[in-house]
Design goal:
Layout lengths: L3 E9 L6 H12 L6 E7 L6 H11 L5 E5 L6 H9 L4 E6 L8 H8 L7 E5 L8 H18 L11 E3 H6 L9 H11 L4 E5 L15 H27 L5 H18 L1
Parallel strand pairs: 1-2, 1-4, 2-3, 5-7
Antiparallel strand pairs: 4-6, 5-6
Helix pairs in contact: 1-4, 5-8, 7-8
Length: about 260
């Protein structure tokens, strides 16, 4: 099958009231672009009628490449994000939340950079329309990630556009709500190219955010630990291997293994 340009990964957990608007927003955002894409809806064992709604939407938009995957048991956003990358047919992989918080304008602005960088990282800045409490929590989280990871990104969540192969290969060790920050820091450690794009956002139309559940707070703490620990590991590696980057070492190892395979 011919590979696509982009896979939109749409996670859902009880988003029956939001999912149709989410899919409609994606369709609107790509309408005027020459882009081979798919919408990969990943249902995380919803207890409402999200799955039936998605099937109904698929019949309504029969010309739109919508695929529905249903996970076995409630596993959470990060787990399904990485799992979904192995089903993706697109060269690029972009999260669009099922609660319809990414406007079409935001999606268009991010995908306009598709193919130019290995990571297109959005941030809101003065455009942030979330509640003051959520903005404050986000600022604190970003400050901690920058301090522990040694970088200066303005945001570590949201609809980041990655190369699908990078998501598969450099997946985070933790899969809670800090998974994207951990993935971004790991790719920055590897010297992957990126750009930051200022976008607008919206708050969810219906329902409540699951981000502040206790298990998610604990998972984020675990991600912060891994971000700091990996920074220390990379620092030690650079001291032990002066003049050789981690990418160069990996490429040399792969080349050597291939030569060995041929000679045998």
């Amino acid at each position: 099958m011919q590979p696509l340009d982009l896979t939109f990964f749409v996670p859902c957990y009880n988003e029956a009231e939001n999912i149709e608007n989410t899919i409609q927003t994606i369709i609107e955002a790509v309408r005027d672009r020459s882009l081979a894409y798919e919408i990969l809806v990943f249902d995380d064992s919803s207890t409402d009628d999200t799955v039936e709604r998605v099937k109904k939407i698929g019949r309504k938009h029969s010309s739109c490449p919508i695929r529905l995957l249903c996970g076995g048991g409630h596993r959470g956003l990060g787990f399904n994000y990485f799992r979904g990358s192995f089903f993706a047919r697109g060269k690029g992989y972009m999260l669009i939340n099922g609660d319809n918080v990414e406007p079409a304008e935001t999606i268009r602005k991010i995908i306009a950079e598709n193919g130019k960088y290995e990571m297109i990282v959005p941030y809101f800045g003065a455009n942030d329309k979330r509640s003051p409490f959520r903005r404050r929590v986000s600022w604190v989280f970003t400050a901690w990630v920058n301090f522990l990871g040694g970088y200066k990104l303005q945001y570590y969540n949201g609809p980041v556009l990655h190369l699908t192969e990078n998501v598969r290969f450099w997946r985070s060790e933790t899969v809670g709500y800090g998974y994207q920050a951990e993935l971004l820091c790991r790719l920055l450690n590897e010297g992957k190219t990126y750009t930051e794009v200022q976008v607008v956002n919206a708050d969810r139309e219906r329902g409540f955010s699951k981000a502040f559940a206790l298990k998610n707070i604990l998972s984020v703490s675990n991600s912060l630990f891994h971000i700091f620990w990996r920074r220390m590991e990379y620092g030690v590696f650079q001291l032990m291997k002066p003049g050789v980057s981690s990418d160069q070492g990996l490429e040399s190892w792969v080349h050597e293994e291939r030569m060995n395979g041929i000679s045998s």
